[in-house]
């Protein structure tokens, strides 16, 4: 069941906009932390070494992933039983409270050990909120979309994440150009966070107007729901395993890409302005790629759009990193990461559509949210720590490439085994 019959046609575009605007604001707040990991480390985790401060800051970034599976289970199941809109409103409100807390927490030098404790707690609240955001939102987009445009509508889920990352990188470019390094360390990163916080009321207002896609009166009693949910989930265990592999591949790629701001500054020793510009360009390209991938998946089918771009990404990753490492500069960084971003963003939109289409509506939000959150927590939360550690122990600036290659191989294998779920299309010239 697509669920589209529960939303009037003239409301579909507005409903998709409201859902993805909220998603974009939540991801802006979550991802912006990684762009300012160095500055946040100086504020809350002062140590005797840059490496130690950065690792503690990235560990706190990772703490936000620990609670994502919990949020995925709780809010995902809540969305299946009660409705998509209440779940999306709750996750959004929690994210708003957490981001304000991080933005306004005094530094370690001002309040001591309480500062990192408060920030870690707020990151964990953010993780819970975001864990329950993706599943209900993706399910909602599938349910409001007409069958012939499902992949394109669902593409706004990853596309909104790229808008968020692009906005975060743009803010970073502007702040790094207009502020001295000590000002960026002191309060510049707080400005970036507060810009997201001030948009929260708009997102809440938009989401309050969303039409619901879960039919009223169809919610099962708790015990009955748990039984049905588990039994149906077991029947889809193979699909879930493949989804975990693909999401692991995708999240490693995503969070290593977000780490390139820090990598460019710490490892390649380029200016912070160029480092933020690289993230701005790569995320902007991934936004276009996500939508283009959805458009292609509606016309060519889901599997071709998953498999072929993933294979090309696998073949290009190492040569791109070789160029970047041996000739670090604006041309190699912008073109190298730009090409990888453009091609690598195509497969995962098709995957989002495939996985949500393959799940029954009454378990769609909970299963998608849980699988997504587990994969992100296991691999997204550790990706930047692993890359930083690999760079430190090997001294090899190509270490991120090896990690990306391993992830790409796992993703390609799983994508080749996924079912084709695209509705049958009429071909030109045929009736």
Automatic annotation (TrEMBL):
Protein name: MFS transporter
Main location: membrane
This protein's UniProt keywords: Cell membrane, Membrane, Symport, Transmembrane, Transmembrane helix, Transport
Superkingdom of source: Bacteria
Membrane topology listed for this record: Multi-pass membrane protein
Molecular function GO terms recorded: symporter activity
An annotated GO cellular component: plasma membrane
Matching InterPro entries: H+-coupled_symporters, MFS, MFS_dom, MFS_trans_sf, Sugar_transporter_CS
Protein family: Belongs to the major facilitator superfamily. Metabolite:H+ Symporter (MHS) family (TC 2.A.1.6) family.
KW Transport (keyword) present: yes
Transmembrane spans: 54-75, 87-104, 187-206, 236-256, 268-293, 305-325, 331-355, 367-389, 401-418
Residue span(s) of domain Major facilitator superfamily (MFS) profile: 15-422
Subcellular location, record wording: Cell membrane
